[in-house]
Amino acid sequence: MSDRIRMTTPIVEMDGDEMTRVIWQWIKEILLNPYIELKTEYYDLGLNERDKTADAVTIKAAEATKRLGVAVKCATITPNQERQQEYQLAALYDSPNATIRSILDGTVFRTPIIVAGIKPFIPTWQRPITIARHAYGDIYKATELALYEQWQDSRVELVATRPDGQEQRQLVFDFASTSKPAGESAGEPAGKPTGEPAGELAASKPAGEPAGEPTGEPAGEPAGEPAGEPAGKLAGKPASKPAGGIVQGIHNTEASISSFARACMQFALTRQEDLWFSAKDTISKTYDRRFRDIFAAIYQNEYQERFNKAGIEYYYTLIDDAVARVIRSEGGFIWATKNYDGDVMSDLVASAFGSLAMMSSVLVSPGGQYEFEAAHGTVQRHFYRWQQGLKTSTNPVATIFAWTGALARRGELDGLTDLVDFAQNLEAATLKTIASGKMTADLLAISSLESKQGLNTEDFLQVIVENL
Ligand code: NAP
Ligand code: MG
């Protein structure tokens, strides 16, 4: 075994849970250890170990990634109440991915793994489309209020208070204007929504809670459109239309948007692919416009020259235009999206390419640290079968690609061409295996190949070895 590939710097290895933990071991035994003197700094992010260390192990693993620069992570359970019982957990720990993301301040890039015989639903797509999702803020850190019953006539404002007490206010919406004739609310003094006595506040519903059934009106009717009603009809009696409504406050920060922009541009350079960024700045003239401007400034000041040299492009376009272009495209670019757009579009793009089990994911920090993983979860149902001693046909491809991504990155950083070559060969052998008609059950169902055979996970891994 002396001719195994040597490594110089360890990769941060984050072990995980359930079926993916089992596959993790197999990948190392069957595909990696025979060829590489694997050097890793091992962190067990399995739920038991997270519980034993009160989740300190997750933080240590993220810090190790900051130090060493390259990590590979197995899928992990994000505990909920059922998992808490199942594993007798002391607490409901945060999602490890969220913890790692907040420590590395990263952006998540998801790229489908394309293989012969699995055709995208969009016939023009020939190369992968990578979605870069901004993973901070917007509706994912929103403050929301439901304003019904005693609150239905609220006037809602945005208030910014400086440290010296100076205030800036902007009207969001005056709900009084929806249940009263227009003239009545217009004369009201502005900016006094907080002047109400505390007692009255306490007597009403907690502000954050929707007040169950505000009216007996059909749910389909919008609350904000009483304008057509004759004033006289409303003036004498309480509003007959559903009144009140909902509000939401969202934010983002210069720091987060800037590091998102840099991560996207860095990633485009690494992959040598064009970068698109989309938002809705025609409607959101301050919020989305700021995203657009930050991207433009960082591109001009830091990346334009390098993009020109690499022969790649950056451009901004409206989200609706982007959607239309994506569908008509051949693929082969990176699509940077705001948080919600990325949440929705990454699932759409993954499904349209064929399978969630064929989606790889990498977290890239502004400091250039990379953490590779599969986009899918721990494949719980398969694990319970495996625990009963049954063989499963769980697709290991995205987990294999997490390893090859990490090995190739490590190899590039350390100048180890044999390690980079091995990673590329392993990816090619994996794709060749599937293209030859040998695949796991999930792919069998969607492959267009005429002659194909479903294999269990271990047999599938053995055929990859034969193709290496
Ligand atoms: P999941 O593990 O991705 O599985 C959802 C379903 O998709 C599976 O039941 C399976 O369908 C299919 N599937 C996913 N990956 C597959 C693969 N490699 N091979 C074959 N089929 C595959 O998602 P989940 O069931 O919602 O979540 C399970 C656990 O994973 C949860 O505890 C969750 O917290 C965790 N999770 C972790 C991550 C992460 O660490 N990044 C991400 C998502 C979820 P069939 O059962 O029909 O075969
Ligand atoms: Mg989603």
Keywords:
468 residues; ten-stranded mixed beta sheet; 18 helices; 16 strands; Isopropylmalate Dehydrogenase; binds magnesium ion
What would you give as the CATH superfamily of the largest domain?
Isopropylmalate Dehydrogenase
**Straight-line distance between termini:** 17 Å
Computed Rg = 27 Å
Task: Provide the CATH topology of the largest domain.
Answer: Isopropylmalate Dehydrogenase
- Residue stretches low in confidence (pLDDT < 50, at least 5 long) are 181-237
Summed up, the domain count is 3
Class from secondary-structure proportions: alpha/beta
Number of strands: 16
Structure ligands: NADP nicotinamide-adenine-dinucleotide phosphate, magnesium ion
Using the coordinates above, name the CATH class of the largest domain: Alpha Beta
Tell me the fraction of residues in β-strands, as a range. Answer: 15-25%
- Could you report the average pLDDT, rounded to the nearest whole number? 87
Please bin the fraction of helical residues.
Answer: 40-55%
Report the biggest beta sheet as strand number plus sense, adding barrel if it closes.
10 strands, mixed
Main sheet strand line-up: 2-1-3-14-13-4-5-12-10-11
What is the general shape? Answer: globular
Do you know the CATH architecture of the largest domain? 3-Layer(aba) Sandwich
| Count of helix runs | 18
